[in-house]
Amino acid sequence: MKRGARLDVDLNCSGGVVVPTSYYLLLSAVLFGLGVVAFVFKRNIITVFMSIELMLNAVNLAFVAFSRALGQLQGQVFVFFVIVVAAAEAAVGLAIIIVISRNRGTLNVERVDSLKH
Amino acid sequence: MTPQIAVFLILAAVAVAGAVSLILQRHPIHSALSLIVVMVALAGLYLLQGAEFIAAVQIIVYSGAIMVLFVFVIMLLNAGAEELTNLSRMARFVGVPLGVVFLLEIAYWIARATSHMAQTSPQAVSTRDLSTLLFRDYVFPFELTSFLILIALLGALVLARREDSD
Predict the structure, then answer these.
(1) Contact flag A18-B122 (C-beta cutoff 8 Å)
(2) Boundary residue ending a domain (B27, B48, B82)
(3) Could you list the residue range(s) of the whole structural domain that residue B16 is in?
């Protein structure tokens, strides 16, 4: 198989020393933690939704890192499925946000509290 | 320091800075733009790991389609800067320790698990191998995702439809 012009050959297979897998996993953990913090912090329902997307991205990074470390492609297939599900989730979630905003006139998650009263 | 690690550190710094900016920005549109920065940096990291197809999908689907949807909804709803309430100040005191503890715990387990993990030399994988796997072994889940997309499309249409139209 001809791979002369491929970018990863230049980046990964030239020196022999590559970025350790634990670096990617640590970055993934940091991004996931920031996503959790954003999920707890933010009051705007759209931003809360965006922090979920951030957490999904962090998990995708861990999937790709393990896929490369173990030399198996299943991780990348799962990343593909995660992205597809995230797209479907974004479409439905944003439609729900539009309905909430139309019915209640606010985007603040604390004002959407009918079940508490 | 090899060039790979330098590129990794730059992209990682950009991704973390974007994620922190997502938290600190008050206006949703600024948070959305910060998230786009994170996603483009992650696409660069996928490219660094030799996952070109995932990098392209990340740019096209995430930074392109999903974030355009987000920005579109933010503009449609005319979302302003978020307001601070008592509960959000309380969340600041609960959320930061929660996030730090969570992060330390994950870092501890990663350091422990990868210390005795054999450092295999990663072999380059091609998009051709990925597509063979996707369309042969995982063709049934792949077809199921098309149903999922279709149902999500119908659900979004039904949800966002105005009630008084009929």
Answers:
(1) yes
(2) B82
(3) 1-82
Rounded to whole angstroms, how far apart are CA atoms B163 and B165? Answer: 6
Coil, strand or helix at B161: coil
Say if residues B44 and B85 touch (Cβ distance below 8 Å): no
Instruction: In whole angstroms, give the CA distance from residue B79 to residue B57.
Output: 29
Q: Which residues of A touch B124 (CB under 8 A)?
A: 3, 6, 8-9, 12-13
Are B6 and B75 found together in one domain?
yes
Report if residue B78 sits inside a domain. Answer: yes
Q: What domains can be seen in chain A, in order of their start residue?
A: 19-105 (1.10.287.3510)
ipTM over 0.90: no
CB of B133 less than 8 A from some CB of A: yes
Tell me, what CATH number does B15's domain have? 1.20.120.1200
Residue B53, domain member (yes or no): yes
Test B122 with A61 for CB contact under 8 angstroms: no
Do A6 and B124 count as a contact with CB atoms less than 8 A apart? Answer: yes
In angstroms, the CA A110 to CA B83 distance is 10
Chain A residues lying within 8 Å of B119, measured CB to CB: 20-21
Contact A108, A44 (CB under 8 A): yes
Residue-by-residue pLDDT tens, chain B, 166 positions? 788 889 999 999 999 999 999 988 888 999 999 999 999 999 999 999 888 899 999 999 988 899 999 999 999 888 777 766 666 667 677 767 877 887 888 878 877 777 666 555 556 667 888 888 889 999 999 999 999 999 999 999 998 887 765 5
